[in-house]
Amino acid sequence: MRGKKDEVHAIYFGDGATSSNGFHSGLNWAAVFKLACVFVCVDNGWAISVSSSKQTAAKSYADKALAYGMPGEDVDGNDVLAVHAAMTKAVERARAGKGPSLVVLKTYRMLGHSSSDDPTKYRDAKELAYWEARDPIEGFEKKLLAAKIIAKGERAKIEAELVIEIDAEIHKQEAAPKMPLKTLVEDVYAEVPLHLRKQYNQFHAIAERLGEATPGDGAFPL
Ligand SMILES: Cc1ncc(C[n+]2csc(CCOP(=O)(O)OP(=O)(O)O)c2C)c(N)n1
Ligand SMILES: [Mg+2]
């Protein structure tokens, strides 16, 4: 609501998040107030070890949009152009003041949820092979080669250039000053509530003891 007139916000979340209260109240609120946003569910079929069949009885996560009065669309998340087309449509709708949409990108998570998760414990190797054959980058490269937009070997060159660009940004951010510790509790409420001020002050005492606090990180008055 505070955004500039042509500003549109995309909210990305996994299939697992669709069972949380925030998903339902967020979609409902955004639709009622016709907010300029696009909800993007990255549906990889698994929420850590919980499969989508245990997550929802709906045919698709996109069907949930109907209840909130917004369009919901299932998209092949491994097809770059299909994703671009669906997002363009949803962004234009939001920008025109017609309200939010839910875009569900069907894809797969090739690795675990995190480095401490072992997906071989709950997933079938056949499923992995099925998705391996549908790698979105391989597929897009094939399309670009067939359309003669890129030449053979050009992908490696693009990748090398991107690694250099990402590396430079990482070095820049690593050298940037640390964020003030207080931002841990200052980014949600207009005024930091008492329970967070108390928690922060305890945390700040520890940070000071460990030499991690800098001037300006000082405790809140209670
Ligand atoms: C509000 C909240 N509830 C529960 C959790 C615990 N939790 C962490 S990840 C996760 C599943 C997330 O599923 P998804 O977004 O589909 O992630 P993926 O396994 O695909 O990486 C859950 C329930 C959490 N982090 N926050
Ligand atoms: Mg998931």
Which ranges are low-confidence, i.e. pLDDT below 50, for 5 or more consecutive residues?
A: none
Q: How many helical stretches?
A: 9
Q: Shape from CA axes?
A: globular
What is the percentage of strand-forming residues? 5-15%
Run of helices and strands:
EHEEEHHEHEHHHHH
Could you please say which CATH topology of the largest domain applies here?
A: Rossmann fold
CATH class of the largest domain: Alpha Beta
- Count of spatially separate domains: 2
Tell me the CATH superfamily of the largest domain: Thiamin diphosphate (ThDP)-binding fold, Pyr/PP domains
Strand order of the largest sheet: 1-2-6-5
Bound molecules: thiamine diphosphate, magnesium ion
Q: Could you report the average pLDDT, rounded to the nearest whole number?
A: 95
In CATH, the architecture of the largest domain is 3-Layer(aba) Sandwich
Give a count of the beta strands, DSSP E runs of length 2 or more.
6
Distance between the termini: 32 Å
Helix/strand/pairing category: alpha/beta
Which percent bin holds the helix content? 40-55%
